[in-house]
Structure formats: structure tokens, C-alpha cells
Amino acid sequence: MRLDPEPKSLDELLDEEDARIRAERGENSMERALTPHLQELAARLQKTLAQYEEEDGV
């Protein structure tokens, strides 16, 4: 067994696995581009809802 002269980092391996899973699910490039933005929007919405609940005493 030969050792890889330039082994991949854990981040590289995780990126490859993520890409493989996305390809299996049929996710397209537009969905990949929107994912970070949608995650940020969801976090902002959650924060805003928590503020409203505090104000209303829910």
C-alpha cells in the first residue's frame, strides 16, 4: 500500500462527500448557491421571532 504524497485534509474530504451527496439528491447549482443565503435568512427570522416573543411575554 502506497501512502498518498499529498493527503487530503479533512475539510477537503468533507467537501467531496458533501458534493457526492448533493449529486445523488440531484441538487443543482442554483440550489447550492442559495443554500447559505437561505440559512442566513432562517437565522435572522428565528432571532426576530424570539424578540417578538420576549416583547409579548409568550
Can you walk through the features of this model?
This protein has 58 residues and is mainly alpha-helical. It contains two helices and no strands. The mean pLDDT is 83.
What does the secondary structure layout of this molecule look like, with pairings?
Elements: H1 10-25, H2 29-56
Write a short abstract of this structure.
Helix content is 76%, strand content 0%.
Radius of gyration: 19 Å
Estimated structural class: mainly alpha
Q: What would you call the shape?
A: elongated
pLDDT < 50 stretches: none
Helix content: over 70%
Question: Largest sheet, described in full?
Answer: none
Please indicate the percent range of residues in DSSP E strands (runs of 2 or more).
under 5%
Attribute tags:
58 residues
